C-alpha cells in the first residue's frame, strides 16, 4: 500500500485506467527523443535527458518494452560514486520504475505522483511499451520553473525547546511530515524544483532526510554554515550566483502564498529586492486622549494601530548579492536597507494568504491545527 492507501503490484506497475483526453499526449518524436537502449552509455542517457528537457530518459529493449528509467538524480548520484560517463547506463538506471497503464484516470495518477513524490511517470501499453509520459506539468497544470529557492534552515530553534534539543526546528512534525518537507511540497506543487537549503544546527538530520531531493520531486543542494551568518549572510556561501531573481524564505514558515505572483510583482516593480509583509494589528486597551495646550482635542476608545511586519519571505535580484560580503554575518533587513541606501528599489508585497511563523510552542500547535483545514481541506 502507498501513503494514500492505493494498492500497487509487485513490479511497481499501477493497473489504472487513464483518461487520455485530459492529459496532453507526447508525440512519437518526443517519446523517441528520451529513449535509450540498455547497452547505451551514461553519457548517452544524459544527452537524452537534455534533448527531451523532461529530466528523464527511458531505457527500452529491442522490442520497445520499458526496462528502466534514468533521471537527473540517478545521474548525479552516479557521478558522486565515481561512475564513468562512458560506462554502461546500467550503472545508474532504476530497474523497477513506477509506471501506469494506458487509460488510467487522471485522479489516480495524480494520487500516485503525490504519494511517491514523483515528477513524471511512464505510461505503458498492454505490452509494456512506453506510449506517453505523465508529468506534474500535465496533471497539475504546473509549469516547471527555473527560479531558485533558498530555504533558511540553520537556526537553533531556542524558543521551541525542549523539542529542538534533539532535532532542528525545520524537522519538527507538522501534518504528519517535517515542516521543511511541507514547505518544499508547497514549492514543488507550484513548479519550483531548484531548492537550496542553508543548514547549520544538526545539519546531518536535514541532509540525510532530503538527500539530493529526487525522492521529493525536486533538486536540492546545501549551503553549509559553520557559524551563524544570518539570512542574508548565508547567501555569501552560494556556490553558484543566480542569474535571475530568486526566492529566499525562512524554514519555519507555513504559507499558502502563490510564489509566481510574488515574482511577477518583483519584476513589475523593477525591484532589486522585495519583502513579503503581513498586516499586524495592535489594539490599545484604553481610550486614547489627544490634547494640546492642556485641552482635550479628541478621544478615541481602544484604537487599533496597524503596521506592516516582515513576513520572512524575500525575492532578490542577482545584483543584490553585490552588497553581501563573504563570511559577514548579515540579516535580511540590513541587506535591504543597504540596497535602498545605494539607490536600489525595494518592493513591499502585502500577503493576504495564510501565514504562520512557527517560532514558539503555541505557534506550532496552531499550525498543526490549521494544517488540516488550510492544506488538506
Automatic annotation (TrEMBL):
InterPro entries: CBS_dom (IPR000644), CBS_dom_sf (IPR046342), Mannose-1P_guanyltransferase (IPR050486), NTP_transferase_dom (IPR005835), Nucleotide-diphossugar_trans (IPR029044). The keyword Flavoprotein does not apply. SMART domains: CBS. Residues 26-85, 93-149 form the CBS domain. Keywords: CBS domain. The keyword Membrane does not apply. This is CBS domain protein. It comes from Silicimonas algicola.
Amino acid at each position: 500500500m502507498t501513503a494514500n492507501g492505493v494498492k500497487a503490484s509487485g513490479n511497481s506497475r499501477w493497473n489504472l485506467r487513464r483518461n487520455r483526453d485530459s492529459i496532453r499526449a507526447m508525440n512519437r518524436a518526443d517519446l523517441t527523443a528520451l529513449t535509450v537502449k540498455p547497452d547505451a552509455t551514461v553519457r548517452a542517457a544524459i544527452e537524452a535527458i537534455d534533448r527531451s528537457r523532461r529530466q528523464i530518459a527511458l531505457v527500452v529493449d529491442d522490442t520497445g518494452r520499458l526496462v528502466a528509467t534514468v533521471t537527473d538524480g540517478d545521474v548525479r548520484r552516479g557521478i558522486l560514486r565515481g561512475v564513468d560517463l562512458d560506462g554502461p547506463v546500467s550503472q545508474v538506471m532504476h530497474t523497477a520504475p513506477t509506471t501506469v497503464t494506458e487509460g488510467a484516470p487522471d485522479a489516480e495518477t495524480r494520487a500516485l505522483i503525490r504519494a511517491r513524490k514523483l515528477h513524471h511517470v511512464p505510461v505503458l501499453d498492454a505490452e509494456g511499451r512506453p506510449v506517453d509520459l505523465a508529468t506534474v506539468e500535465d496533471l497539475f497544470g504546473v509549469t516547471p520553473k527555473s527560479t531558485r529557492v533558498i530555504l533558511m534552515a540553520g537556526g537553533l530553534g531556542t524558543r521551541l525547546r525542549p523539542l529542538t534539543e534533539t532535532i532542528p526546528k525545520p524537522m519538527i512534525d507538522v501534518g504528519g511530515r517535517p515542516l521543511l518537507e511541507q514547505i518544499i511540497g508547497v514549492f514543488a506543487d507550484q513548479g519550483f524544483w531548484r531548492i537550496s537549503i542553508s543548514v547549520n544546527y544538526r545539519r546531518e538530520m536535514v541532509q540525510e532526510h532530503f538527500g539530493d531531493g529526487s525522492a521529493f520531486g525536486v533538486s536540492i543542494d546545501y549551503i553549509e554554515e559553520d557559524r551563524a551568518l544570518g539570512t542574508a549572510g548565508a547567501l555569501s556561501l552560494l556556490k553558484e550566483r543566480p542569474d535571475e531573481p530568486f526566492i529566499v524564505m525562512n524554514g519555519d514558515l507555513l504559507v499558502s502564498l502563490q510564489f509566481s505572483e510574488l515574482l511577477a510583482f518583483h519584476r513589475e516593480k523593477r525591484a532589486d529586492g522585495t519583502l513579503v509583509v503581513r498586516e499586524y494589528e495592535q489594539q490599545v486597551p484604553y481610550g486614547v486622549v489627544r490634547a494640546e495646550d492642556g485641552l482635550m482635542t479628541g478621544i478615541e476608545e481602544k484604537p487599533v494601530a496597524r503596521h506592516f511586519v516582515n513576513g520572512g519571505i524575500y525575492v532578490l535580484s542577482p545584483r543584490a548579492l553585490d552588497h553581501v560580503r563573504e563570511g559577514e554575518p548579515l540579516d535580511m533587513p540590513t541587506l535591504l536597507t543597504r540596497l535602498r541606501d545605494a539607490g536600489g528599489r525595494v518592493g513591499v508585497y502585502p500577503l493576504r494568504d495564510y501565514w504562520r511563523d512557527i517560532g514558539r510552542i503555541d505557534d506550532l500547535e496552531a499550525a498543526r491545527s490549521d494544517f488540516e483545514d488550510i492544506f488538506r481541506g
